[in-house]
Specification:
Elements lengths: L5 E4 L17 H14 L3 E3 L2 E2 L5 E2 L2 H14 L3 E4 L10 H4 L8 E7 L3 E3 L2 E3 L3 H14 L2 E6 L3 H11 L8 E6 L9 H10 L5 E6 L2 H14 L2 E4 L6 E3 L2 E2 L4 H14 L6 H8 L11
Parallel strand pairs: 1-2, 1-12, 2-5, 5-6, 6-9, 9-10, 10-11, 11-12
Antiparallel strand pairs: 3-4, 7-8, 13-14
Helix pairs in contact: 1-2, 1-8, 7-8
Bound molecules: (5S)-5-amino-3-OXO-hexanoic acid and zinc ion.
Length: 281
């Protein structure tokens, strides 16, 4: 069984700071949080950045500053996002983070979904644009799946050659309006993705997340934790920081006998060739 890849998602495109004041938002806070999560066992950081008022921004200079500060501290892999930006943003504006120096992965949200109270719109032409932009830049797409039908969209893009195996999926579960975060639904998603794919799981609410993460640890999958998906360490108990989620996963994995992947081992598992620029700056 491959070693366990832990992704830490430090804070969402929807800044969660108003709900938990310890959500990191400045480049310096993001770099400190990424380093602490790396020391606890995270090998990928999923990164969103914020403006001086703590509001999400797609500004590349801000994103690059956070990347450089992170890579001055540790060799963690940086995963950009195509999920942010205002609804009027162009696909190029929504994917500025894919242009970041040192970015090795990028999320590709494989369809449109009612996400909490808002439609999270990702049309197939936009997805193709982002997939091609990542391919041009040697950025590995993380295929974000919110609903079962999105796996069909992946298959269509593999058939057309836009996406190339080996594929790497992240199942985004239990968001209101998306696939419920149940063990049965996770098993179904694992069963329908193409053979030989790697998969990770993140889920909303602490209860759902714990059950699914333990399944992932025991079944050879990978996990994503962090404030972007869940502010609570236990039901009703706000987490002190992102690191406590990573530490808990590392403890669980150790108890179950699943070793934790280093960033280089994560690159090898996901088939990512390390780019010179991803070295420490
Ligand atoms: N906000 C997460 C539920 C992205 O940034 O591209 C999904 C996500 C999407 O992380
Ligand atoms: Zn995100």
């Amino acid at each position: 069984m491959d070693k366990l890849i832990i992704t830490v998602a430090l804070g969402g495109a929807e800044a969660a700071r108003q709900y938990n004041p310890t959500v990191p938002t400045t480049p310096e806070q993001l770099a400190d949080a990424a380093y602490e999560a790396y020391c606890a066992g995270a090998s990928i950081v999923h990164l969103h950045v914020y403006d001086s008022e703590g509001k999400p921004t797609e500004d590349l200079a801000t994103f690059q500053k956070a990347c450089d500060l992170i890579h001055m501290k540790c060799p963690i892999l940086i995963e950009g996002s195509t999920g942010g930006g205002r609804p009027d943003f162009t696909p190029d504006q929504r994917s500025r983070s894919i242009e970041g120096r040192g970015v090795e992965l990028g999320t590709l949200n494989m369809g449109t979904v009612n996400f909490f109270d808002n439609p999270f719109i990702n049309t197939l032409p936009e997805i193709e644009f982002w997939a091609n932009k990542m391919k041009t830049r040697g950025v590995k797409p993380t295929l974000m799946i919110f609903e079962v039908g999105m796996v069909r969209n992946v298959e269509r893009l593999v058939e057309s050659g836009v996406l190339e195996p080996p594929l790497y999926f992240d199942f985004v579960m239990n968001a209101p309006g998306a696939i419920p975060g149940t063990p049965k639904n996770l098993l179904h998603l694992i069963e329908i993705i193409p053979l030989g794919s790697q998969w990770s799981v993140n889920a909303f609410t602490p209860e759902s997340q714990m059950a699914l993460h333990i399944m992932a640890i025991t079944m050879g999958g990978h996990v994503r934790v962090g404030f972007e998906d869940n502010l609570y360490y236990m039901p009703g108990e706000l987490a002190a920081n992102n690191t406590v989620f990573v530490e808990r996963i590392a403890r669980l994995a150790k108890e179950i006998g699943r070793e934790i992947a280093t960033p280089d081992e994560a690159r090898q598992i996901l088939g990512i060739k390390r780019k010179a620029e991803a070295q420490r700056v």
